[in-house]
UniProtKB/TrEMBL annotation:
One of its GO terms (molecular function) is transmembrane transporter activity. It comes from Myroides indicus. This is EmrB/QacA subfamily drug resistance transporter. Pfam families: MFS_1. It is found in: Membrane. Residues 8-455 form the Major facilitator superfamily (MFS) profile domain.
Length: 476
C-alpha cells in the first residue's frame, strides 16, 4: 500500500512542511528566546536571516547531490540531519549554539527539499502535476497559516514546561514518522550519475551567495562600511569565478555543480527571476508581527492569530490552483501575481483607514495571491525539463525563491528598521508594502514573457527534444 505514489506524496509533503514551518514559527518566539538566551538584537536577526541564507545557499547543491547519489538516499540524509539540528536548537543554552543549529537546519533543509520536487517530478505525469503542485503549495499554506500562531500557542501552553524550546522539538516526532515512511516506501531503483561532486564549484557558489546576503542583514546596526563593499566585491568575484570554473569543467567533461545548458530552457530562466522577485515579499511576514506588536501593541497571541486569514487564503487558492490552471492555462501565473500585488496595495490603504474587517480581508487576498503564484511558478519553471536534470532544476528554482526571501528580509527589512527607528512603524510598514508591490510589478511583466514562450512551444518543436538528442549523442 505504501508503495503507491499518492501515499508517497503524502509523507513527502509531511516532511516538506517542516522547513517552511520553521521559518514562520520562530518569528513570534523571538522575544522569549531573547530573554532566555540573553541574546542581542543582532543575534536575533541572525537566528532568522542565517536560516534563510543557509537554506538558499545550498539549494542548488542539494538538488545536484540527489542527481549524483540518488534522491532517496539524499532525502533520508537531509531529513535525519534536519531532525537532529532541530533538537540542537531546542536544547541550546546560548545564542551561538542556537545560530549554529539554525544554520544546520537551513543547510539540511536545502538538501532535503529539492529531492521532494525531483521525486514528484519523476513520479507523476504532466496532467497529474497540476494537482501535485497544488498540494505542494498547500503544504506551504499550512506552514503560513499555522506557523506564527502555532509558535505563540505552544509557548503560551508551555508544553512539558519547555517554553519556546517546544517549537523546535516538535519536529522530532513528526520528522521521525516521515523518515520511517521514506525508508519503507520510496523506490530504491533510481537513475544515478557516476559523476563526482564538484566541491570547488560548491565552495565558490556558497562563498558568493553568503557574501551577498550577510552584509545586507547587518547594514541596519553597522551601516554601510568598507567591509560591506568588500563583502559584495568578494560575492561578485566568487560568482564570476564559479561561472568560469563550471564552464571549464564542462569542456573537460568533468562533473559540474550547475550545467548552464539548463538555462537554454527559457521558461526555467524566466521562472527563476520571477521566483526571486516574488519571494522577496517574505519580509512581509517578519515585519507584520513586529508592526502589530510594537505599533498596535497587540500581544504575541493576537499577532499570531492575525496571520490566519492569510493562511486560509493560501490554502484555499493552493487547492483551487489545479482547476484554475486548467482553465487559465499558463496565464494563471500572471493572475496570481496580480492578485498578490492587489492585496498589498489594499493593505497599504487600510493602514491609514483602518478597519478590522478589511484588514483581515486584505490578508486573505494576499494569501490567495501567494498560494496561486507559488503553485504556478514552480510548475511552469519545471515544465519540459528532462528527468535527469530534475534535481538541478528544482534546486535552481528553490534557490531563486529562497535567495529572494533572504534578500527581502535583509535589504527591505533594513529599510523597515531604519525608518521605524527614526520616524515610526506605520510609515516603515507602508514603505515595505510599496517596495514589495514594485517587485511584484516587475515579476508580472516578466510573467507575460514566460506565458508567451510556453504558449509558443505548443505550436513549435520543443527545445526539450533537441536538448535530449544532444545529450544522447554526447553520451554515445
Amino acid at each position: 500500500m505504501f508503495k503507491n505514489k499518492w501515499y508517497i506524496l503524502l509523507f513527502l509533503l509531511l516532511a516538506t512542511v517542516l522547513s517552511p514551518l520553521d521559518f514562520y514559527i520562530v518569528n513570534l518566539a523571538l522575544p522569549s528566546i531573547q530573554h532566555s538566551l540573553k541574546s542581542s538584537s543582532s543575534e536575533l536577526q541572525m537566528i532568522v536571516s542565517f536560516y534563510t541564507c543557509a537554506y538558499a545557499v545550498f539549494q542548488i547543491s542539494g538538488g545536484r547531490f540527489g542527481d549524483i547519489y540518488g534522491r532517496k538516499k539524499i532525502f533520508v540524509i537531509g531529513l535525519t540531519g534536519f531532525i537532529c539540528s532541530s533538537v540542537l536548537c531546542g536544547i541550546s543554552q546560548s545564542s551561538v549554539i542556537m545560530i549554529l543549529g539554525r544554520v544546520l537546519q537551513g543547510v539540511l533543509g536545502a538538501v532535503m527539499i529539492p529531492q521532494v520536487l525531483a521525486i514528484l517530478h519523476a513520479l507523476f505525469d504532466e496532467r497529474e502535476k497540476r494537482l501535485v503542485m497544488a498540494l505542494y503549495s498547500f503544504t506551504f499554506g499550512i506552514a503560513a497559516a499555522l506557523g506564527q500562531y502555532l509558535g505563540a500557542l505552544l509557548i503560551e501552553w508551555n508544553v512539558f514546561n519547555l517554553g519556546w524550546r517546544v517549537i523546535f522539538l516538535v519536529n522530532l516526532p513528526v520528522g521521525l514518522f516521515a523518515l520511517i515512511m521514506a525508508v519503507i516506501a520510496l523506490p530504491r531503483q533510481e537513475t544515478k550519475s557516476s559523476e563526482q561532486v564538484d566541491y570547488r564549484g560548491t565552495l565558490l557558489l556558497s562563498v558568493g551567495l553568503i557574501s551577498f546576503i550577510y552584509p545586507l542583514t547587518t547594514i541596519v546596526e553597522q551601516g554601510v562600511q568598507i567591509r560591506t563593499v568588500l563583502y559584495l566585491f568578494v560575492s561578485a568575484l566568487s560568482l564570476y569565478l564559479f561561472f568560469r570554473v563550471e564552464n571549464k569543467r564542462k569542456k573537460q567533461d568533468k562533473s559540474v555543480l550547475v550545467n548552464f545548458d539548463i538555462f537554454k530552457f527559457k521558461n526555467l530562466k524566466l521562472g527563476v527571476i520571477v521566483s526571486f522577485l516574488y519571494y522577496a515579499s517574505g519580509v512581509f511576514y517578519l515585519v507584520l508581527g513586529i508592526y502589530l506588536q510594537e505599533n498596535s501593541h497587540w500581544t504575541s497571541m493576537e499577532a499570531g492569530k492575525a496571520i490566519i486569514p492569510f493562511g486560509i487564503g493560501f490554502i484555499v487558492m493552493s487547492l483551487c490552483s489545479s482547476m484554475m490552471s486548467a482553465f487559465f492555462k499558463q496565464a494563471v501565473l500572471s493572475l496570481g501575481l496580480i492578485l498578490y500585488g492587489l492585496g498589498f496595495l489594499l493593505l497599504l490603504y487600510t493602514l491609514y483607514n483602518f478597519s478590522s474587517f478589511f484588514f483581515k480581508f486584505n490578508l486573505f487576498v494576499i494569501g490567495c495571491g501567494m498560494g496561486l503564484t507559488l503553485a504556478s511558478v514552480v510548475r511552469l519553471s519545471l515544465s519540459n525539463i528532462p528527468v535527469q536534470f530534475a534535481g538541478l532544476a528544482s534546486g535552481v528554482v528553490n534557490c531563486g525563491l529562497q535567495i529572494g526571501s533572504a534578500f527581502g528580509v535583509a535589504a527591505i527589512g533594513s529599510v523597515f528598521f531604519g525608518i521605524a527607528n527614526t520616524v515610526d512603524y506605520t510609515l516603515a510598514f507602508a514603505v515595505v508594502l510599496i517596495l514589495i508591490s514594485l517587485f511584484l510589478l516587475i515579476a508580472l511583466l516578466l510573467s507575460f514573457n514566460l506565458t508567451r514562450h510556453l504558449s509558443s512551444t505548443l505550436l513549435t518543436l520543443s527545445p526539450l527534444r533537441n536538448f535530449d538528442q544532444n545529450e544522447e549523442k554526447a553520451s554515445e
